[in-house]
């Protein structure tokens, strides 16, 4: 991703890269460096070693080996960052709750965005890093950018997914801010799914309202809208593939707001199956 293209995410000062040190995190590691360089941001490189509270002596030795291996990997990332004149700090922690550790680091360091990979090194049946990525996106108070393995954000097009909730409003603001800053952005696709025929008119009105706001900020950008009855996740993935978008932008929770329930499970499904990066706003 070119330096200018990091304008796709609003200005940040503090970035947390959460990596499991596997090839699945390589895309996130590269994007974190690009973002930090473009924004002049401080980069925290975090790895959490999942600790068994009942470690034996052998377990401790294994943990030390894991820490040594992780430190070697993180130091390589740190050197890459330093070569780009980025201030980067390494943090390695042991915990049986990686999500809580990541959230603690976000709160302690006042992080603006967490950047992480989509799948863990185990990759069993494509289960996310012990579902860590999904839980992080739900828990942390800042934005989360989830990057697939080897994915590069080119900066051509984005997809905004909205359900009209207050959380989606923040995603809308992020998308509108993006199109106002990024002259090179060629297109945006606005998607709103309806569960019933009765909700379809509301979905159509929603995408039209957003279209009007986008046009006020960027008259050159191509805008496509999709308001249909159907599965939100299927619809979003379909459009993202067809349009070959770089980033899907969406809120972390849905209009039901049931105790941190992700947007009708759409958010969690997209984290697992999206063909591109996913930016989850708060």
What is shown here, in short?
Helices cover 42% and strands 22% of the residues. The protein is α/β, with parallel strands linked by helices. It is globular, with a radius of gyration of 19 Å.
How would you characterize the overall build of this protein?
The protein has 282 residues and is of the alpha/beta class. The chain has two domains: 3-147, Rossmann fold, CATH 3.40.50; 157-281, Rossmann fold, CATH 3.40.50.620. The chain is 42% helix and 22% strand. The protein contains eight helices and ten strands. The chain has a ten-stranded mixed β-sheet with strand order 3-2-1-4-5-10-9-6-7-8, with helices on both faces. The model is unreliable at 1-5, 123-128 and 257-262 (pLDDT under 50).
Descriptive labels:
single chain, 282 residues, Rossmann fold, 2 domains, 8 helices, 10 strands, disordered N terminus
């Amino acid at each position: 991703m070119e330096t200018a293209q990091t304008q796709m995410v609003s200005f940040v000062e503090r970035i947390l890269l959460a990596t499991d040190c596997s090839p699945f995190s390589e895309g996130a590691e590269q994007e974190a460096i690009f973002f930090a360089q473009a924004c002049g941001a401080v980069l925290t490189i975090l790895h959490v070693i999942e600790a068994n509270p009942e470690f034996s002596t052998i377990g401790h030795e294994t943990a030390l080996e894991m820490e040594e291996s992780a430190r070697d990997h993180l130091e390589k990332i740190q050197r890459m960052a330093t070569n780009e004149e980025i201030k980067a700090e390494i943090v390695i922690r042991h915990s049986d709750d990686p999500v809580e550790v990541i959230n603690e680091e976000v709160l302690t360091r006042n992080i603006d965005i967490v950047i992480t990979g989509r799948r863990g090194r185990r990759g069993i049946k494509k289960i996310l890093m012990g579902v860590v990525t999904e839980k992080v996106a739900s828990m942390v108070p800042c934005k989360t950018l989830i990057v697939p393995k080897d994915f590069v954000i080119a900066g051509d097009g984005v997809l905004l997914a909205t359900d009209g909730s207050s959380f989606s409003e923040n995603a809308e603001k992020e998308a509108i801010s993006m199109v106002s800053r990024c002259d090179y952005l060629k297109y945006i696709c606005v998607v709103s799914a309806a569960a019933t025929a009765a909700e379809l008119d509301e979905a159509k009105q929603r995408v039209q309202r957003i279209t009007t706001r986008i046009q006020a900020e960027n008259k050159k950008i191509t805008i496509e809208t999709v308001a249909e009855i159907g599965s939100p996740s299927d619809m979003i993935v379909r459009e993202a593939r067809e349009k070959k978008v770089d980033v899907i932008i969406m809120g972390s929770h849905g209009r039901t707001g049931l105790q941190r329930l992700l947007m009708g499970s759409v958010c969690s499904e997209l984290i697992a199956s999206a063909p591109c990066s996913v930016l989850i706003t708060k």
